[in-house]
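INPUT
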Amino acid sequence: MQTELSTTLGVEHAVFGFTPFPAVAAAISRAGGFGVLGAVRYTAPDDLARDLDWIDAHVGGRPYGLDVVMPARKVEGVSEADVEAMIPPGHRQFVQDTLAKYGVPDLPAGEAAGWRITGWMEQVARAQLDVAFGHPIRLLANALGSPPPDVVARAHDRGVLVAALAGSARHARKHKDAGIDIVVAQGYEAGGHTGEIASMVLTPEVVEEVHPLPVLAAGGIGSGEQVCAALSLGAQGVWLGSMWLTTTEADLHSPALTRKLLAATSSDTVRSRALTGKPARQLRTEWTDAWDGADSPGPLPMPLQGLLVAEAVSRIQRYEVEPLLGTPVGQIVGRMTAERSVQEVFDDLTRGFERAVDRINRIAGRSDR
Amino acid sequence: MQTELSTTLGVEHAVFGFTPFPAVAAAISRAGGFGVLGAVRYTAPDDLARDLDWIDAHVGGRPYGLDVVMPARKVEGVSEADVEAMIPPGHRQFVQDTLAKYGVPDLPAGEAAGWRITGWMEQVARAQLDVAFGHPIRLLANALGSPPPDVVARAHDRGVLVAALAGSARHARKHKDAGIDIVVAQGYEAGGHTGEIASMVLTPEVVEEVHPLPVLAAGGIGSGEQVCAALSLGAQGVWLGSMWLTTTEADLHSPALTRKLLAATSSDTVRSRALTGKPARQLRTEWTDAWDGADSPGPLPMPLQGLLVAEAVSRIQRYEVEPLLGTPVGQIVGRMTAERSVQEVFDDLTRGFERAVDRINRIAGRSDR
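OUTPUT
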């Protein structure tokens, strides 16, 4: 699975793996792919520095990257407290009522909410970048629009390629105009923030729109046959996120969540604004159902919703309250039916890819070549 | 583009084209694909007989099929008038108010609503079948679940293959259990009635679920690269519907609608219950927006909604009231940017398919073979 982009980056397979877990990121790169560590959960730059040091020691000299969540537009002089003050009391009450209904205990005294998507606040993301540029990252991805121009310039000065996610051709064009190097076309079926356009339609539209920039296809990819499909659509590689959640190297800290992921079918996700305020695909749970229900006050816009639910999500996770327990994940969750190592996932991807290429050649009447 | 199924049916390309227009169906089969005429708009069996006669005279001896909309469960002794009586007056008022807001004129005296999805009523569909089995159809497709067992048996007695649409693996399994021969996996991005699962995920799930039955991939396919992707996912062919709407052989009877289709992007469709009561992807219009709006009484269940809006849709179409004018169409509408003949669409599909196969072989390191 060699494309121009995988050759440029010096990796064996044009398979990019996004993950919040350093051990998974390192294993992806060691297996011949390109591991990308998600930084959004790191509140303290020191924690990120520690984990990047760990990756450097365990990646075997292979290239890897970092994914941040950085808004293109800066909001000056607004603190987290200012944003918290914008949350209506009725919304806070709905959260507390829903938690009470399921008997979700409080966090132990002195334990802060661990789940906070504060990485998307620009000052946090910039502190992460200061750390990251001190490590040998080869790629910087941004999940929330194009990064600011000075960040793109700083990356380019260091020979770091910049990638950005797009859910439409129009969105992708903005990335190209902002000097981005790689566009990740994120289809409707993908986990996390997604648009309405499915990968089958979106990938070739983005490829055509940003030509000659390389495009990675994201959304719905978890087998070698799906890799072959995505590359048929013109992508120079694939971007997988969900698949790694149930690998043995992943560290979900929740046997109940792992069980739910392994049991879920492709019909068990929902695109909901309940987690961050923007539509994000995730496991459908009684928590997302509550936000979609008749009594719901409706999710708040980003970043208010993320702040509103941060403590609740931490409590649900800490006590593994099964009916409410969820995570961002794509429709490919239906294929995640057993825990496997990252290497096993890669072996399966490469075997499936070869099978698909054989089959396509037979259909094209080239099997005798 | 030769698969086991295309060989069985004796067609050159594993491309199945669904269309309401006899001239398009015949042109698809003449171009080496497999044309499937949609019967749902035929209220009178004689009209269907006339159009099938026309196809027989113009298809050049190539095989073709028929698509009906037949409920698996029979509702005994219920007339169209009984069903009409179940529509709440508030819903009728909403339709009239919305039409009045846009100044949509009444139909001329004596002119009946031409647009009626009455084909889904079982007695109508059965009358269609009596006609169809008198013609050399090779395939009978049903868009609404498995056809009743006696219909499947009748088709098999005549050597007619039976296909049914499915939006999930569970749904596809029911078709297999009902003795269906071919499953059409209809992805989220498809036009008309669709589920939530996108083609990239749905196709391989259905292939695995109904193995060894052949699967056709539907949804998001309009280029040879997309054909290659769908076949990579294990499909034995592709099922295209939207693409033919803007061919020169199509007969939309509405220059305004053709203009809207040619101008629409992949972001300009919506999955709405406004047309039939079940979620169906269609052009997003001020009509679908009205049904999604705050004042909307909400669409009624099938078949009530279809009966409720039948006259309104006819009036909107007859007077080409542009803001309200729509049609079922998939996200692939973004690729429909110029009127072309059916043959030109096929030439484009086959060229794109060969390009994609070349590219995949290069990526797989087989370009030297």
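end of record. Chain B touches chain A through 52 residues (CB under 8 Å).
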